[in-house]
Amino acid sequence: MKDPRVCTAWVTALAVALALGIAGCGGSEGAPGSAASGSSAPATEPRGSPTETPTTSTSALPTPDAPIPRDPSRLADTLARTTAALERAIDDWLEHGDPARGRPPKPVVFLALHQQRMYRFLARHHDLARRTIAELPRPLAAPARDNVTASRKLFSLTSPISKPSAFRTQQPRPAGVLLTYFKRAERRFDVSWQVLAAVMYVETKFGRVKSASSAGAQGPMQFMPSTWDSYGMGGDVHDPNDAVLAAANYLHASGAPEDYRRALHAYNPDGRYVEAVLRHARQIRRDQRNYYAYYNWQVFVLTTRGDRRLTGP
Q1: Under DSSP, is residue 222 helix (H, G, I), strand (E, B) or coil?
Q2: Which of 306, 180, 310, 304 shows the shortest CA–CA distance to 245?
Q3: Which of 9, 138, 255, 267 has its CB 3.0 to 4.6 Å from that of 263, i.e. a possible disulfide?
């Protein structure tokens, strides 16, 4: 929850801390046609040491620094195949696993990371994004446009930093546990659980970012202390369940569900933030598997030496 008097400082600090899901998988990726690619972070397993899924061969999974095609047709084909494989992996996880316990399976983590990196790359290259989206199958074109636009708007809030090690990360609560928090808050305050999930994704990548903002915003939903005193209902700002309930309380008081734009603008008075949250929420509402995909999008920072993935707490 941001005080408008400190919003500019907060937006820059937190957006840099997260790179808001649109930085690349380590290293500075060059423009289309450039040879620059790869990773400045170790090309090992993504953070979280996900468990194996027996129905998927790990040898077929994209590595964390797999090259991103620069040709629109090839990139569209890779994005479509990756998204389809990710959806199948999420279906398998939901059918045979338990999202309320433990960590996501390896196929979900690796495929989500590859999808995230492609959307991040498209967000930084407007013409390539336009040509790639035009090559996508119709059912994927609109979701891709939402993801690219949301990422681009959030990426426009970032500024490079010199010391990414200053940002602390942690393991988030399991996806299924967070989902119960979102739905409980929806029932209590009549605020869409998809909007609450999108807010937590944008704010702290579902609680992965532990650091407070330079302005003093804290917890997985990033409340200023004075706002928490008014809407936190006596809870712990760092507890995800309490923070989600407080965010729903504040959004309801600010105009939700009648006017989500107004409510989100009260939460963070920047139109780019509002638009990004609404587009991500729309994709979660369109297909709940997108919630699990976003949950597995990882934390990156934009540094003065390029984009870097944070690989552990």
Answers
A1: coil
A2: 180
A3: 255
pLDDT of residue 264: 98
Are 253 and 139 found together in one domain? no
Question: In terms of DSSP bridges, do strands 300-303 and 306-309 run parallel, antiparallel, or are they unpaired?
Answer: antiparallel
Verify that 197 and 247 share a domain, yes or no. Answer: yes
Per the prediction, the chain carries an average pLDDT of: 84
Q: Are 186 and 246 in contact (CB under 8 A)?
A: no
Residues 222 and 142 in one domain: no
Indicate whether 80 and 181 sit together in one domain.
no
C-alpha closest to that of 19 among 276, 291, 218: 276
Both 281 and 174 in a single domain?
Answer: yes
Q: Distance between terminal CA atoms of the chain?
A: 24
Higher local confidence (pLDDT), 204 or 168: 204
CA distance linking residue 111 with residue 280, whole number of Å: 18
Q: How far apart are CA 286 and CA 290, in angstroms?
A: 8
pLDDT digit string (tens) for 260-312? 999 999 999 999 999 999 999 999 999 999 999 999 999 988 888 878 888 76
User: Do 185 and 151 sit in the same domain of this protein?
Assistant: no
**Same domain (yes/no): 138, 199:** no
pLDDT at 182: 99
Residue 276: give its domain's CATH number: 1.10.530.10
Tally of CB atoms within 10 A around 77: 16
- Structural domain range at position 302: 17-166+298-309
pLDDT band at residue 99 under the 50/70/90 scheme: very high
What average pLDDT score do residues 139-144 get? 98
Same-domain pairing of 44 and 160 = yes
Strand partners, 27: 307
Give the number of domains in the chain.
2
- Note whether 1 and 223 are within 8 A (CB): yes
Q: Is the pLDDT of residue 78 over 60?
A: yes
Name the token pair of 230.
């008014």
